[in-house]
């Protein structure tokens, strides 16, 4: 097992900044305001040849009510999982009562604890660290997570006290990446927790609970996955806070990084333009998709018929994706999602043979010819695969730039139906071959045959 290092401390002491420095990423959302991080966020780091996992946690404020209570539970779970704990304090704020409360809690967890004196650049270390000895954690170690000074020495000190890594461990998150997206408060985090079978991310009856994109590796039926819980994306006009803007950007980035996207809809609310926009963004990004209509339990039959008609009317461009009606809270229908996820991933990454694609193209052209362009028929000769996830089919012919959109959709539907591609969009790219004789000059007529010579001899007479 890889060693796990948990970062804990008060809000806004620099835990997420240190997380980004250790993992050499920008996965943790950083803003100059407290309470940005709420869920546990895992990342892979490395010191020399030794990899490790680092866990970012929400700030511990001592106010165990509402969302703060759930954040404290997440932090406690991270401490229980960790092999070592980095307790960050703010050198510029000095020691606070919250720091003392956290230190008392950490002393009971029976884990190696290291006190990191963050934001210490430009300060007299002997003066600012003196009061932190009263915490009873040990000697404060000055670091500056924003610049990285002192961080390498701190991590090496942590590793000297940890057991050596076992062979065969890897810090990489491998498997099918599944992004769970949707508007705020539709049940994304509840669905993630139901899939994992534990309270892995915060699920609270308040829009905007999730702020960061949380990557969670897990296994199911000997298959490896990486589940990505994202923040809810609202309409741009309704986004006022800067932190929410960054959360929306992280959610859209998660769509681009995923193999399969689960679009979560609320059965108790009308399908909005924002739902259609999110679905369209995922399709434009080429992601395989599964639609999950949540909170399906307790609906009357006429309400269920209405939501199905709304799906057909407003999300007709998702006709290739499987739709599941689920209850994330009670678990009904959640297990069926993985059959569709597997089908969508297999279709998106399948290798397609050139002879099969060319035969489908020939049959489609024979059944329905392309239109005429300036009196000449568009000719489509052969097709081959140009990429995966999504499947890209390249069709070669002449005058392909004039192929109308309706005929392109006809070919895409033919390829999808014959190849039995489910859950993934298809892209068709048309290429025209150049005429090899367009720059050649015609030879003189007298060089061709006896007939031309006789005609020339007659003209001379």
UniProtKB/TrEMBL annotation:
Keywords: GTP-binding, Nucleotide-binding, Repeat, Ribosome biogenesis
Pfam families: KH_dom-like, MMR_HSR1
GO molecular function: GTP binding; ribosome binding
Domain EngA-type G: 3-166, 176-349
Function: GTPase that plays an essential role in the late steps of ribosome biogenesis.
Family note: Belongs to the TRAFAC class TrmE-Era-EngA-EngB-Septin-like GTPase superfamily. EngA (Der) GTPase family.
Protein name per its UniProtKB record: GTPase Der
UniProt organism field: Solemya pervernicosa gill symbiont
Upper taxonomic lineage: Bacteria, Pseudomonadati, Pseudomonadota, Gammaproteobacteria, sulfur-oxidizing symbionts
